[in-house]
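Can anyone check this?
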Amino acid sequence: MDIPEDIKSNLKESSCLAFRDGIVLCKSNDFPLKSDASSVTEIDRSAQDILIRHVIYDHPESPLTVEYTADRKFIEKIVNNKHVNVVFLDDSMKEKSLVKVQLSKEEIAIMKKEASLA
């Protein structure tokens, strides 16, 4: 995956950001144990930003949480796709894991409402 230098410099350890085309990049040494784990998506809105949180149940006692802010364009893309691809990167920005987070009809409806999408 070709990641621009400005994205590489802005992506800090143990953080995630909305990249493009419904892809979220996470720089972390904590990768999901399985790529087909169930998940729940939570959406919060602040004054300017929409915060999206995916709780990935890859381990029963310790689910993995992916959290990032998203703009309207990114949300529109993931609503249309009905999923988010979360790419986990190591310290050298190499892909270590990919998880496809499916969005439920209810999660999509909440995202549309929060992002003011018709």
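Reply from J.R.: I decoded it. Residues 16-114 form one domain.
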